[in-house]
Design brief:
Strand content: under 5%
Number of helices: 17
Number of strands: 0
Shape: globular
Largest sheet: none
Radius of gyration: 22 Å
Helix content: over 70%
Distance between the termini: 50 Å
C-alpha cells in the first residue's frame, strides 16, 4: 500500500509563505516611504501652482520647472548608481532625505521673507531633483536586502505600489486644500515634515546592512559599462528600458500641461484640481491592489501589454473633454483613472522583472540606468510640452501628445516582454 502522508520536505514546501507583515524592517521602511510619498504629493502640486498663481508663470516656465526637477536623473543617475554599488545604501538614503527636507523648507522660508522668485524656485527644484536621484537609486537597491527572497518581490512591490497609489488618491486633494487655505509656498511645510518622519523610520531599521564585497581595481568607466551592458544585452531589460522613457515622456508632458490647462482654460480651482487628481488616482490604488492577483492569474506578458495600453490610450480623453464644467471634470477623471489603473499594475510587473533579472552586485547600476532613461524622458517632456503649447495652444498640444502616446502601441505589441508567461529565474551574480 502506498503511503499518502506528506514527508518533511514536502510539508515545508506546502507550507504558506510568511507574509512580509512579519518582516519588521521592511514594514518600517514601508511606513517611512508611505509618509514621504503623501508629503511629496503636496510638492507635486504646490511647486507648479506656486509658479502659476504667485508668479503668473507661462507654460514654458512651468515646463522648465518640471525639467529642473527631473534633469538630474539624466545627468547623475549613472554616477550615483556606481557609488551606491560601492557603499551601504541606508546612510545615503538618510542624507538624501535630509537634503530634500531642507530644500523644501526653504520655499516657505523665502516666501515669508519676500525673497522667493522664479530663479530660486528653479534652483530649489533642481536641488530636490538631485537628492531624489540619490534616494531613488539607493532604495531600489536597498529593499532586496530587507526581503532577501526574490519570491517575495511581487508582494513587496505590490505593497509599495498600494501605498504610492493611496498617496496619489489622497495626496492631491489634501494638497489642493492646503494650497487653498495656506497658499502654495506655505503648504510645502507638510512635505518637509514628511521627510523628517521618513528619516526617523530609516534610523529605526535594525537589520545590519552588509557592505558590498570589495572589487579590485575599480574603475568608473568599467563599472558604468557593466551596468549599461547588463541592461542592454538582457532580452527582458532591454525592451523595458527602451519603452520606459517614451512612456514617461507622454505621461509627464500631459500632466505638466494639464495643470495649466485645468486652471486657465477649463476654469478649475486649486481645490477642484486636487479633487480631480485624487479621484483619478483611485485607479492607481485599484491597479496596485489587484496586481498580485492579476499577475498570478494571467500570463505576465499579457498583463504588461494591456496595462501599458491603458496608459498610452488614456490621454486622448483630455482634449476631447467638452461641455459643462462637471462633464469636463468627469472626462478628466476618466482619463487619469485609466492611466493610473494601468500604471498601478505595470509598475509591479516592471520592478519585479528588473530585480529578478539583475544580480545584487549590479542592482544599483541597473536601477541607475533605468532611472536615468525613465526620468530623462520625463525631463525633456516639460520643456517640449511647454514649447508645443506655446506654439499651438494648450488644447491642441494635448491632442498632439495623445496621438504620439497612442502610436507607442505598435512597439509595445512587438516587445518580447509582452510574450512572457511568468517571471524568469533569478539572475546569478555575474561579477563574483
Amino acid at each position: 500500500m502506498t503511503s499518502t502522508s506528506t514527508g518533511p520536505e514536502e510539508a515545508v514546501e506546502a507550507a504558506p509563505r510568511p507574509s512580509l507583515w512579519r518582516n519588521r524592517d521592511f514594514v518600517m521602511f514601508w511606513l517611512g516611504e508611505s509618509i514621504s510619498l503623501f508629503g511629496t504629493q503636496v510638492t507635486t502640486l504646490a511647486l507648479p501652482l506656486t509658479a502659476v498663481l504667485v508668479f503668473n508663470a507661462s507654460t514654458e516656465q512651468v515646463g522648465l520647472l518640471r525639467f529642473a526637477q527631473l534633469v538630474p536623473y539624466f545627468g547623475l543617475a549613472l554616477l550615483f548608481g556606481v557609488w551606491v554599488d560601492r557603499v551601504r545604501r541606508r546612510p545615503v538614503m538618510l542624507f538624501a532625505n535630509l537634503l530634500r527636507m531642507a530644500l523644501i523648507a526653504l520655499v516657505p522660508l523665502l516666501s515669508y521673507t519676500d525673497h522667493l522668485s522664479m530663479t530660486p524656485l528653479l534652483l530649489i527644484a533642481g536641488g530636490i531633483g538631485i537628492a531624489s536621484v540619490l534616494f531613488d537609486v539607493s532604495w531600489m537597491s536597498y529593499v532586496p536586502s530587507l526581503i532577501r527572497d526574490p519570491k517575495d518581490y511581487v508582494e513587496a512591490y505590490a505593497k509599495l505600489g498600494v501605498t504610492s497609489s493611496s498617496a496619489d488618491v489622497a495626496g492631491p486633494g489634501i494638497a489642493g486644500m492646503l494650497v487653498g487655505a495656506l497658499t502654495a509656498p506655505i503648504a510645502l511645510i507638510v512635505d518637509a515634515c514628511s521627510y523628517f518622519a521618513s528619516l526617523i523610520t530609516l534610523m529605526l531599521i535594525k537589520a545590519e546592512e552588509k557592505p558590498p564585497p570589495p572589487v579590485a581595481n575599480r574603475r568608473l568607466r568599467t563599472e558604468l559599462a557593466e551596468g549599461w551592458n547588463w541592461v542592454l544585452r538582457d532580452r527582458i531589460l532591454r525592451p523595458l528600458v527602451l519603452m520606459g522613457p517614451a512612456c514617461n515622456f507622454c505621461m509627464i508632458s500631459v500632466q505638466t500641461l494639464f495643470i495649466v490647462y485645468a486652471i486657465r482654460e477649463a476654469g478649475l480651482s486649486p481645490f477642484m484640481l486636487g479633487f480631480v487628481l485624487s479621484a483619478s488616482a483611485v485607479g492607481g490604488l485599484l491597479g496596485a491592489s489587484i496586481s498580485r492577483k492579476v499577475i498570478g492569474r494571467f500570463p505576465l506578458g499579457r498583463v504588461y501589454l494591456y496595462s501599458m495600453a491603458a496608459i498610452f490610450l488614456a490621454p486622448a480623453l483630455i482634449p476631447l473633454a467638452d461641455g459643462p464644467k462637471q462633464v469636463v471634470a468627469v472626462m478628466f477623471v476618466a482619463s487619469f483613472f485609466i492611466s493610473y489603473l494601468g500604471l498601478g499594475v505595470v509598475q509591479v510587473v516592471m520592478i519585479s522583472l528588473r530585480q529578478t533579472c539583475t544580480p545584487a552586485a549590479l542592482m544599483g547600476r541597473m536601477n541607475a540606468v533605468f532611472r536615468m532613461l525613465l526620468f530623462g524622458g520625463g525631463a525633456v517632456a516639460g520643456p517640449i510640452g511647454g514649447f508645443i503649447a506655446g506654439a499651438v495652444g494648450l488644447r491642441t498640444a494635448l491632442a498632439i501628445l495623445a496621438v504620439i502616446s497612442a502610436s507607442l502601441l505598435v512597439p509595445l505589441a512587438l516587445s518580447p516582454v509582452s510574450a512572457l508567461k511568468e517571471l524568469p529565474a533569478p539572475a546569478v551574480d555575474a561579477l563574483k
